[in-house]
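In response to reviewer comment 3 from the previous cycle, which asked for concrete evidence that the modeling workflow produces usable outputs, we include below a single protein chain processed end to end. The sequence was submitted unchanged, and the resulting structure tokens are shown without manual editing.
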Amino acid sequence: MAYKVRYTNEVLADLEEVTEYADSHFPGGAEQFSPGLLDQIEVLAAYPRIGALHFARSNARKLHYSPFVIYYRIVEPQQRIDILHISHGSRRPLNL
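The workflow returned the following structure tokens.
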């Protein structure tokens, strides 16, 4: 059974930042990059444990979509994936 993917308001702001980054660093390629990122997130609905456990907390996970890292949490009782944050991989890891 597929999990529901939920985006927080913070992640929506992150997605806007990612799109701006892609526009400035990959002219003409942003139209392909951003949908690819969203497709990668949607894979979590079918395979929620595909990401590695995040070292800071055992209930947070991370999934790489180069050059970005998608941080998320599995909420088992509701069969939901909460996308917590998206950041550039060169940034310091989050303490979620």
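Helices lie at 9-25, 30-46. We consider this sufficient to address the reviewer's concern, and the full set will be provided in the supplementary archive.
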